[in-house]
Amino acid sequence: MDNKFPGKDISLEDIKTKFPLVAKKNKHHKTRFKISGVEFGPNTIPIFAGPNMVESQKLILDVAKNVKTIGANFLRGGAFKPLTFPYRNKKYTETREKGIEWLGLAKEKYKIPIITEVMEEKYLPLICEVADILQIGSRNMQNYPLIVACAKTQKPIMIKRHYGASLRDWLGAAEYVMINGNKKVILCERGVSAPHTHKSTSRFLLDLQVVPAAQEITHLPIIVDPSHATFWRPWVEPMTLAAVAAGAQGIMLEVHPDPKNSAVDPLQSIDYKNFSNLLKKMKKIAKVSNKRLI
Ligand code: PEP
Ligand code: MN
Fold first, then answer.
1. What's the first-to-final CA gap in the chain, in angstroms?
2. Residue among 216, 118, 228 nearest 167 (CA)
3. What angle do the packed helices 233-246 and 272-288 form, to 10 degrees?
4. Which H or E run includes 39?
5. Ligand 1 within 6 A of 82 CB?
6. 85, 94, 135: which to mutate for ligand 1, most atoms within 8 A of CB?
7. pTM beyond cutoff 0.85
8. HSE toward the beta carbon, residue 246, CA cutoff 13 A
9. Which residues pair with 219 in a beta bridge?
10. Are 174 and 184 in contact (CB under 8 A)?
11. Is 194 left (phi over 0), alpha (psi -120 to 50) or beta?
């Protein structure tokens, strides 16, 4: 008997022994849970929107107000950032503790829940005061001590897929959260390393196929971040719509009032008008799949 799922490196044995908690118990098993009143599961598409980085108090308050009005369910933004190169100009400097404080102000003033990245365990108590979801960035997908520490807080956890990780390894990371008694886990596809075998369109390639592939194996919600995958503003809209069509159970987008002047990722952030238009189009595609934005 062929015990492998078609085209994947995951065997039935893996499902039983490597990630039994993350694996579906039967074909129809899909987890539903609420985070700060927002429903995750098979029928809803929660929206996470905000700048790459919490650059200033003024910026994050403006974004919180606007994305909430337009229809976002969560405000995203990093105060602690995994920047690829260590050299910073003034614009790139992480805002760290201050940034967390500003996220807290935005949450209080505009009543929007927060997702933000955790880079080091020592900042967890501070971040947990403000965050509704702890984001494990792609670069930390296999930082198991960090994942376990985050899991133990019992805050919901979003695990971004590392751009070099297989579905098998990604599910292994989620199992580390669940084995620590934390059931609110969200998986986020954010683009894999573009293959070097052909001239690629960008640094990363959005692996949309992983959405149905993951859903075949896990009951956890799979969301998609087309901003980091495409790296290029004009492609964010088509790939977001494609992600919804592919069955994404949530979408994360980088939204900035003045994308060209965003401190990080100025080429991929979209402005409020684009965000608003995109949500309208997403609603139409969601309807076709019997799903809804919230
Ligand atoms: C982010 O969401 O800000 C981020 C750094 O993403 P990733 O970990 O996917 O690169
Ligand atoms: Mn980014």
1. 43
2. 216
3. 20
4. strand 38-40
5. yes
6. 135
7. yes
8. 26
9. none
10. no
11. beta
- In our burial notation (b when 16+ CB lie closer than 10 A, e otherwise), range 129-146 reads ebbbbbbbbbebbbbeeb
**pLDDT tens profile 113-126:** 999 999 999 999 99
Q: Are 220 and 19 in contact (CB under 8 A)?
A: no
Q: In the numeric block, which tokens belong to residue 164?
A: 């070099």
Q: Which among 80, 85, 95, 138 is the best mutation to test ligand 1's pocket, defined by most ligand atoms within 8 Å of the CB?
A: 138
Residue closest via CA to ligand 1's atom 10 equals 138
Residue nearest to atom 9 of ligand 1 (CA): 138
Alpha carbon of 82 to ligand 1 centroid (Å): 8
Residue the block writes with tokens 């993951």: 214
Whether 162 is in the pocket of ligand 1, judged by its Cβ within 6 Å, is no
What pLDDT digit, counting tens, does each position of 217-253 carry? 999 999 999 999 999 999 999 999 999 999 999 999 9
Amino acid sitting at position 78: G
Measured CA to CA, the distance from residue 225 to residue 268 in angstroms comes to: 11
